[in-house]
Amino acid sequence: MNEQSKALASQPSQAEQVAQELERAIHEHRLTPGAKLGEDEIAEVYGVSRTIVRAALQTLAHQRLVELRRNKGAFVAQPSVREAREVFEARALLEPRTARSAAERMTKADLDALTRQIEEEHAALAAGDSGRALFLSGQFHIEIARIADQATIAAFVSELVSRSSLIIALYWQRRAALCESHAHHALIEAFRDRDGDRAEDLMKGHLLDLVTSLDLRNVAPMPGSLREALGK
Amino acid sequence: MNEQSKALASQPSQAEQVAQELERAIHEHRLTPGAKLGEDEIAEVYGVSRTIVRAALQTLAHQRLVELRRNKGAFVAQPSVREAREVFEARALLEPRTARSAAERMTKADLDALTRQIEEEHAALAAGDSGRALFLSGQFHIEIARIADQATIAAFVSELVSRSSLIIALYWQRRAALCESHAHHALIEAFRDRDGDRAEDLMKGHLLDLVTSLDLRNVAPMPGSLREALGK
DNA sequence: GAACGCATAATCGTATACAATACTGTGGTG
DNA sequence: CACCACAGTATTGTATACGATTATGCGTTC
Q: In 3D, which of B129, B138, B196 has the Cα closest to residue B163?
């Protein structure tokens, strides 16, 4: 079962590839909070050994996307209400100021890329692929940190966005799935105008909207089959 | 070589223990940036297998304390000048506001613990153990985030403090090793007065002092023997 | 004498084997 | 009928073995 592995798959490391696949599955809510991630099962699905799978799961555990329970296995994390609040608290500290920096150093190319991303998000939403739309909506925030030229903050934001995806899966009260799009559009305009103040305010408001659109009182777990969610 | 392992050492997981030992060695500058962390060597030192060591190294890599170079091995990270700036940029966003929250919800017990920590830091410094003093000085910042009751932010601050330790090892220009102590004392007083505004300002200034006390222009690597630094 | 190439050794990457622990179902007993 | 004990099964934790890649040292050649 290592015939194709020596082909050329070893550059970005098999473990990272598996981690990325799982991460995306979680982002798109194909894997829902609480789902069991059996080592043997994943190993078989991707045709690698458990060693690789364990490394990937450890990576995701460090991002708090999966929880490693000793002698029990790996599970998609189920952020508590408290953790949900903390995540958005952290985002409130990091993202508005970062949006300001981004606005100030935004280039035309950056703006185009951002605009293209929003359009893709709209397309996904129109196509009914809300999973992908949600994923792209998160990428938007990460991209801003990248444009602000702050790799360290970008890494934090990336982790927080991932965790937000789990939080949304658990606590989202359905209504106005695209209120975000408006917020993102408004941000783009602020960026176009190089208006740091406005970008900061808009981001602050956007995050506030997000957290208030959650129902942070009760819980709602969901099992779901792993092999099915992974597609094959 | 697993006689003592089944004793009762398995609770906090061997990998985490090794990771903690290495982390502390890095914090206290017994392991300096660029040092090679050979898997076999560490495995032998702690009497565990390479499997455990690899897990520990991966953990540290996620915290950016060590750099994993493919087919080359693990090395203590050498933050670039740019990364150094980014780390303090992130701290500037997170810590002042967190200090304010901490001040507002500080209890007498918290204050006592914090005070005790400062005294211990002074004692270490007086005893000439500057490595431990530096470690405790970092713990002070982490403790504040914990008191603010923000576990998520505390985790970020913890990582940033760790990385700051590496940055100090590389870019510190010796002078006024205890200017920090003054800043920490001033913060304690603000906490005692429940003065959130002052705590936020003091923390902002403290971080600014820290970053300006660095020489962010040149580099200075250092090898050093591993087995020696680990003590046994 | 310097530079290149090859053989050797060391180290990492991955797979697999075995041990330890937790889960499941069955049979018995109160 | 409910509950507990126990055996069997499955899954994770750890160690080790093997293959691949990289570093090193020596000998040859120009």
A: B138
Contact B90/A153, CB-based, under 8 Å?
yes
Q: Do B152 and A87 touch (CB under 8 A)?
A: yes
Distance from C-alpha of A85 to C-alpha of A58, rounded to nearest angstrom: 24
CATH 3.90.1150.10, applies to B81-212: no
Q: How far is A190 from chain B (nearest CA, A)?
A: 22
In this complex, the nucleotide whose C1' atom is nearest to the CA atom of residue A6 is D20
A63 touches strand C (CB under 7 A): no
Alpha carbons B63 and B84: distance in angstroms, whole number: 14
CB contact under 8 A, B151 and A86: yes
Q: Are A161 and A124 in contact (CB under 8 A)?
A: no
pLDDT in tens, B11-58: 668 999 999 999 999 998 999 999 999 999 999 999 999 999 999 999
In chain B, list all ranges with CATH 1.10.10.10: 5-77
Query: Over the stretch A35-76, which tens digit does the pLDDT of each residue have?
Result: 999 999 999 999 999 999 999 999 999 999 999 999 999 999
Pairwise CA distance, residues A40 & A49, whole Å: 8
Residue range A5-77 in CATH 2.60.40.10: no
